[in-house]
Predict the structure.
Amino acid sequence: MDVVDHARAAWYLLADGDALLLDVNCNHGAVGYSVLIELDPTERARWEEEGRAYLDALSHEIHFSAPIVSTPPFGEPSPYRARDLKSTRRHEVTNAVRRWREANSIPPPH
């Protein structure tokens, strides 16, 4: 797994073989967490067409869908909650980001 791109404090795009994974930083007041999804074919096609702008929009959509809560106060649960791979892939993502930071001389976040 390798970091392909990132937007500071917002998301990392990672490649794992043919799969593209988006790790989105979510922050709702005192609660911070991340959500990791594999881009589906439609999302991947849009990324290939629109690039980083699409990933910015998708990460914004994921963040504001509040995937950490089962039922938000105004609507249905986040469609990204069921797609979250963080529980099974967290260590791989952490290691890939660490290697990428070291290779690019980027200090760890505070």
